């Protein structure tokens, strides 16, 4: 069998004897690779017993877990058979099965059992959901081992603030719960420039988590903490006939729109329309104020089914009927991704400020960016009316300037053929 040469944190995790080791790691540190290796090595150690492998969604099982298992099993020259939906397991010849499950439907974590398990990206789940999933996986982890050793569950994750993994493994760890830290820099197989590329797209506050694998407060202070009224300000205005890009948030009797131009590839907010009754009224205001301009609207995706006016036509359909180009996906990006895209555009870790706001012409937008805070649940507060304009601007930024995490490339297994 070929030799495996993991990084030091990977080796510590793969060989950990603790009941519940957690590899808390930065992007590109090889945590999923370590999870797969730990799963395979653990499976080989206990022929005939089952093992579980969990991802946040079925898409990640299909796109991440299965290809990684197939590649590694092939390189290790281990015969296997992958049985996809609806069975969802890998059968290793003479060694037993590895079951694959998603964590987005905890109620389906029933009807099977295993001796050990591996959980990838547990911290992407909200606190309550993560705790529920963890209890359910623990209940499945009950096949008795012939050598009497305890059942184990390994976790690999990027830290997402002070969530379930922090509380369980760091704040109040019980016996058997151990953290293995893995910074991005621990992986020598990353492509050149990978770490610098992360600094280009993430604000400094996130890099302790996403580069170092540290637990940091991602929900303290104001939501758009990188915005500066002085440093992000500009006197740029739209020019005659210029293409306008309008982010739009749908709210009955309180619709908001933030008007942008793009200069040298960068976004500039040059106007705002707030407190509008409904979509027909918003359309009328835009047509009146910006006659002669090409208009692209980047709305809240829920407008495909919602109606701000009592009529049979959806908000998105009304925008299209008005002659506007509508740029929207089937669903909105996650709130975290939208906020991160905004904060990075206002100022990334290199101090670059790409997103500028004409504060004089966008007074409400600027005030909301300065003042919106997080609520007690760690979500942007929506009780003070400060969310509408930033949401509108955020739909445009998240669509045109999304956070596209650079691919680290797959860490290869080296050794004798």
Brief account:
With 417 residues, the chain is an alpha/beta fold.
Give a quick set of tags describing it.
single chain; 417 residues; alpha/beta; Rossmann fold; Nucleotidyltransferase, domain 5; 8-stranded mixed β-sheet; 6-stranded mixed β-sheet; 12 helices; 14 strands; 31% helix; 19% strand; elongated; disordered C terminus; viral release from host cell
Number of strands: 14
CATH superfamily of the largest domain: P-loop containing nucleotide triphosphate hydrolases
Q: What characterizes the major β-sheet? A: 8 strands, mixed
* CATH classification, class level of the largest domain: Alpha Beta
Q: What is the SS-derived class?
A: alpha/beta
Molecular shape: elongated
Task: Provide the CATH architecture of the largest domain.
Answer: 3-Layer(aba) Sandwich
The share of residues in helices is 25-40%
N-to-C order of helices and strands: HEHEHEEEEHEHEHHEEEHEHEHEHH
N→C terminal distance: 8 Å
The CATH topology of the largest domain, please? Rossmann fold
Stretches where pLDDT falls below 50 for ≥5 residues?
Answer: 410-417
Strand content: 15-25%
Q: Quickly count the helices.
A: 12
Mean pLDDT: 91
> What's the number of structural domains?
2
Q: Which value, in Å, is the CA radius of gyration?
A: 25 Å
InterPro entries: P-loop_NTPase, Terminase_6C
Domain Terminase large subunit gp17-like C-terminal: 246-398
Organism: Marinobacter nauticus (Marinobacter hydrocarbonoclasticus)
Protein name: Terminase large subunit gp17-like C-terminal domain-containing protein
């Amino acid at each position: 069998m070929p030799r495996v040469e993991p990084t030091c944190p990977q080796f510590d995790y793969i060989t950990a004897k603790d009941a519940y080791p957690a590899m808390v790691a930065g992007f590109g540190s090889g945590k999923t690779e370590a999870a797969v290796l730990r799963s395979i090595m653990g499976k080989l150690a206990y022929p005939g017993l089952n093992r579980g492998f969990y991802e946040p969604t079925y898409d990640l099982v299909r796109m991440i877990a299965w290809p990684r298992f197939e590649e590694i099993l092939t390189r290790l020259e281990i015969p296997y058979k992958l049985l996809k939906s609806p069975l969802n397991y890998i059968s290793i010849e003479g060694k037993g099965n590895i079951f694959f499950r998603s964590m987005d439907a905890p109620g389906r974590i029933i009807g099977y059992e295993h001796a050990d398990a591996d959980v990838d990206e547990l911290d992407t789940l909200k606190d309550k959901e993560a705790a529920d999933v963890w209890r359910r996986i623990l209940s499945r982890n009950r096949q008795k081992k012939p050598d009497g050793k305890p059942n184990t569950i390994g976790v690999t994750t990027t830290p997402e603030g002070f969530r379930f993994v922090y509380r369980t493994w760091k704040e109040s760890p019980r016996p058997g719960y151990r953290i293995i830290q893995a910074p991005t820099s621990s992986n020598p197989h990353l492509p050149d420039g990978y770490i610098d590329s992360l600094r280009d797209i993430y604000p400094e506050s996130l890099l302790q988590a996403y580069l170092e694998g540290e637990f940091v407060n991602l929900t303290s202070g104001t939501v758009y903490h990188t915005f500066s009224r002085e440093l992000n300000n500009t006197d740029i205005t739209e020019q005659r006939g210029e293409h306008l890009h309008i982010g739009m948030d749908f709210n009955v009797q309180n619709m908001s729109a933030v008007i942008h131009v793009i200069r040298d590839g960068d976004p500039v907010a040059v106007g705002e329309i707030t407190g509008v009754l409904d979509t027909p009224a918003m359309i009328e205001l835009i047509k009146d104020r910006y006659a002669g301009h090409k208009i692209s609207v980047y709305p809240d995706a829920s407008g495909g089914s919602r109606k701000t006016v009592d009529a049979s036509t959806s908000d998105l359909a009304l925008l299209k009927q008005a002659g506007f180009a509508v740029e929207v996906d089937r669903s909105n990006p996650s709130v975290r991704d939208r906020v991160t895209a905004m904060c990075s555009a206002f100022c990334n870790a290199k101090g670059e400020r790409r997103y500028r706001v004409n504060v004089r012409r966008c007074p409400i937008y600027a005030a909301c960016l300065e003042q919106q805070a997080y609520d007690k649940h760690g979500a942007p507060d929506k009780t003070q009316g400060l969310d509408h304009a930033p949401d509108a601007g955020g739909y445009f930024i998240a669509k045109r300037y999304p956070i596209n995490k650079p691919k680290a490339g797959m860490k290869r297994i080296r050794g004798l053929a």
